[in-house]
Each structure stands twice: as C-alpha cells, then as structure tokens.
Write a structure and sequence with these properties.
Number of strands: 12
Largest sheet: 4 strands, mixed
Distance between the termini: 57 Å
Strand content: 5-15%
Helix content: 10-25%
Length: 373
Amino acid sequence: MKNIKYIAIVLLSALTILACKDNASEASKATSNVTNLDNDKIPQKKIDSLVANPPSGMLWIPSGTFLQGAVAQDKTAMSHEKPQHPVSVDGFFMDITEVTNADFSKFINETHYITVAEREIDWEEMKKQLPEGTPRPHDSIMQPGSLMFKKAKSTLPNLYDFSQWWRWSIGVNWKHPSGPESTIEGKDNHPVVHVCFEDALAYCKWANRRLPTEAEWEYAARGNKTSTTFFWGDDASQLSKMVNSWEGEFPVKNTLEDGFERTAPVKTYLPNDFGLYDMAGNVWEFTSDWYNIKYYEELAANNATIINPQGPDKAYNPSLPYSQEKVIKGGSFLCSDSYCASYRISSRMGTSMDSSAEHIGFRTVATSDMLLK
C-alpha cells in the first residue's frame, strides 16, 4: 500500500491550502521584514520605562549571545540541529505564554477574521503547490477542516510514516478543536490550535506584534541554561513534572503521567529562567524563519557570531520539495522520548505555511521601536 503515505502526507497536509494564495504570498513577504532593533530616535528614558513595565502578558528578554543548536551531550539531536554556532540577539519582549483561546477570541471578535481552516477549499490554487498530475480529492474530502491526531491500535513498526496517526477532520478548527461538535468552552486558558502561519500573522498585525525569529525563540527558551539539553537542565527523569508531552508507547498508549492527554492550560508547569511558560511541550510554536535543512551548516561555515539572524532566504527540505515550510519550535503534547523528543531546546521542525493541526500554536514578540512608534 505504497499510496498510503502519499495520500496522508501529500494530500492531507495540503488540504488546508485554501483559497488564500495571495494572502500567503503577503504573509511570506511580511516575515522577511523583521529587522534589527533600531531605537536611535526613541528617548532612552522611554525605552527604560517600557522595559521596566512590559506590556501586559509579556516579559523583557535581555540581549545576549548564545550557541544555537544541539549541545554535545544530546544524543537524540538530529542533523538539522547541528552544528552549534554563535548567535547574538538584541533584547525584545515576548509573550509569557502561548496565545490562548481567550486571546484569539478577542482578536476574532474585533476583526471578524476567518481562519484558513474555516475557509472553502479552492482546488485550482491547491494543485499549484502539489506535484503535477496529482489527482483531485473527492468532494467529500475537499471541505474545510484541519489535521487531528489519532491513536494507533497496536505497536507501529515504522514511526517515520506520520500519516499513520494523522487524519483530515472536516469541520475542525480553532473553535472546534476536537471535532465539529466540540467547543472551547472551559478552555480559555488553553493554547489556541488549528491555526496556520497566515492566521498567526493576522493576529500579530492586530496585536502590534510579530512572530519570533528562530534564534530569538531558542535564546528565550534557553534562559540562563547555556549548555543543557532541556530548559531545566539535563535530567530527563524530570520530564513529566516540567512538560506536557507523551508518556508511554507512542502513538498507542499515553500513561498521562504529566496529567494531560491533549493540550494543558498555560502556566500548568514551571517556567524557565526568564519566566516563560511552555517553551517545551504543550504545542509547537511558529517562528518567522524558513525551514532549510542546510541553514545551520551555512551559518557555522562563517566562523563568526551571527547578529540577529533572520533565517535563510528560502525553504529547503528535499523530503517535501513542494512545501513552503516555516520553522516551528518547542515540541508538543505528542512528543515522546521514543519518537521525536522535541521538548529539547534545540529541537526544530518544518511545517507548511498553509497547514493547521491540533498540536501547533504560537506566541508573539515585540521590540521597543514597535511599541513606542
């Protein structure tokens, strides 16, 4: 059944590519406009006051230099997390938590924005981002929805084929995260999910924020731990106390040792040294960087500290050559030590700009010049 992987990965992950190609193009342009902090025209007194009194729900992350990428003792690190390379970032403000359902609801109520997962699907636009000759899915599938996780009934010998635990779910979106009949009632403090990159950018525009670069995100996640695998250190036995992840045999049985099977309310677990919550587990978080598997090698080849890196100029992933992917960080409630262990600080993954799923969310950042202009 060689077509199972093709259908599940190529089609299902692409089915959230809706009638929004022009908007996606604008979204990709917006991510290239993240510039270095420029406070030359802002009085220092105003900047100091803002740093001392950050916007509600945000923290000031001071500037600094760190080694980005997998640490030497991390035996589970993947090749695209290597080699380590020195990076310097300017100070910035960051959301203390992932954007919640309550936060996103305010944005929707004020703007009446419609997320990608709620929009009708345009096959003529979708097929432009698929291999030539890809057959049109049946009308019963070509309906708005998102990707949902499904448990396997028994042990899977091949954990590389992730179509085995993802399904296309019609009627699923941020308001109906677990099925078309589900709601977010009682989940105001859970991270918003089933949002794609374009949706995150729309929220950022409304909130006068932006998405973090990958370097900013990793620097913030590391806190004061300069050379550890996790934000709390190197002791993996502390995982269930620190992170909402998958315990047990993935994707068959979750023992719920951490207390949750799906998302957890933000601030459930301890924060990192900077005071940021859920920088590991719960949901993956978007960054503004293109996902390019060669990028770290290119940076390391410069033999110099990279200042405020903005990511590669374009995406590159030979495994999914037709997909324009962005870097996501932090792992999710589905990450297991037997599968991806992506609650590690250096862990990274690419995801299509136009895809949404129940394990992906985001948080925002801002700089003084954005807030004081």
